[in-house]
Amino acid sequence: MPKVPETEGFPASHALHLLELVGRWNVSAAELLAGLGLGPDDLVDPHLNIPLPTIVTLVERARALTGEPALGFYLGLQMSVSAHGYLGFAAMSAPTLREAVALAIEYTPIRTTSLALHVEVSESSAAIVVDEQADLGTARDVVILGLLVGLWRIGNALLGREVTESTLDVTFPEPDYYARLRRTNPRVRFSQSANRLVFDPSLLDARLVSADPAALRLAEDQCKRQLEAIASDAPVVEHVRRLVLRRDAGVRSFDELAAAVRISPRTLRRRLADAQVSFSTLLDEARRDRALLLLRSRDVSTKDVAERVGYSNVANFMRAFRRWTGQTPAAYRREHGSSAS
Length: 341
Known about the structure:
This protein is of the alpha+beta class. The chain has two domains: 69-228, no CATH class; 233-336, Homeodomain-like (Arc Repressor Mutant, subunit A), CATH 1.10.10. It is built from 15 helices and seven strands. It has helices at residues 12-22, 29-33, 52-66, 71-77, 85-93, 97-107, 140-159, 213-231, 234-243, 254-260, 265-274, 279-294, 302-308, 314-325, 329-336, and strands at residues 9-11, 49-51, 115-121, 126-132, 167-169, 187-189, 195-199. The strands form two sheets. The protein has a five-stranded mixed β-sheet, with helices on one face. The protein has a two-stranded antiparallel sheet with strand order 1-2. It is elongated and about 75 Å long. The two termini are 44 Å apart.
């Protein structure tokens, strides 16, 4: 297996699922995401990874805004296999639960390296064990319960029936909010030796209702490509160039970029140095390319273009644009612009 870089964070899609959940309490995207440099459009970006401190802030804020401490349980209950991208597609296409679990273990790093999975099997039980690879802070119970309940729910979907005899073990003490969830499946046991989903080992060889050999081959190929991409040096440069500007407006910090490409800031600096390219150069190129694209539309003002490529001062943007092209934005627009947005 290719070496996988270290990362502490989660795909933006998980923050999107949290946003969808808190909507049940009429919490808006603006309330949940305020001041975090994220917008709803960012959360649908399949390439964006959200740093762990931001995840913790989102969870704390979601609890405060909803007044619901048991958000992890509810997140898990709404989790679908499609929430995990190509990995989910591969798992649902596998012939048996055993092979689906093996895929999840092998390709978890394309989703996060804050957590890892392994399986334990004996004559009487099987367990998918969740190993904590990073400090989840105050979000710990939400993340762990969300994942374990989600794995249980996904397993039910893959098997085509609810496995009521399964149990969840977690290492942290029982929180007060669990008293009202005791009769809800799956049942949870607290202060255990590991975080795990425990089930009958015979289920490992059960056929999955969505098994599809052709789809499995396609999905696993994509998983392999993603695993190779996050471990190789060359794609990092392209990922940084693509992600350095936010989708709506503004520039991502170096630490945010490192999380987005699933490596540490230190490793990112080394890889950029190895590629003989600087962060400032990639930012400059990204600003230029986006500005050239935006200026082709007459519906976007020069001031808006400046803001969307990360310049708060229009004069600074115009100086940069002249350096890039030898022209003013207005002259470029006269030559290349159209009325189409």
